């Protein structure tokens, strides 16, 4: 499914005008996105995702599940804040190393399953 097709599906019975107004762009510009003539920038992708209450990964075709529950969203936000705080305590040269170790740990956990 293309980006434009996803937008049409998410719009449902609303008009292009309604959605465009909700994300603060012109109807013509929104129409270009739905018809796959143009692609929005990252800020606008986030606005569109927020408007439709879906993930940006879903809009970009990176996830099949379009919706995060409020609990999932809060959990992900909290985890990101904790990780950011921990990483910030390290020197720049150590930050990449810490992320590499975390990635290796995740791969190890996946392999155990």
TrEMBL record:
This protein's name: Transcriptional regulator
Parts forming coiled coils: 73-103
Lineage: Bacteria, Bacillati, Bacillota, Bacilli, Bacillales
Domain HTH cro/C1-type: 7-59
Species annotation: Bacillus cereus
Keyword Coiled coil part of the UniProt annotation: yes
GO molecular function, one term: DNA binding
Domain of life: Bacteria
Keywords: Coiled coil, DNA-binding
UniProt xrefs under InterPro entries: Cro/C1-type_HTH (IPR001387), Lambda_DNA-bd_dom_sf (IPR010982)
Pfam family, one: HTH_3
């Amino acid at each position: 499914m293309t980006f434009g097709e996803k937008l049409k599906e998410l719009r449902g019975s609303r008009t292009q005008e309604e959605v465009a107004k909700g994300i603060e762009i012109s109807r013509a510009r929104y129409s270009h996105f739905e018809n796959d003539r143009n692609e929005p920038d990252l800020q606008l992708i986030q606005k569109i995702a927020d408007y439709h209450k879906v993930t940006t990964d879903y809009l970009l075709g990176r996830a099949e599940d379009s919706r995060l529950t409020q609990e999932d969203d809060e959990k992900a936000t909290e985890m990101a804040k904790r990780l950011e705080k921990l990483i910030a305590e390290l020197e720049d040269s150590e930050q990449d190393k810490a992320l590499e170790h975390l990635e290796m740990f995740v791969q190890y956990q996946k392999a155990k399953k």
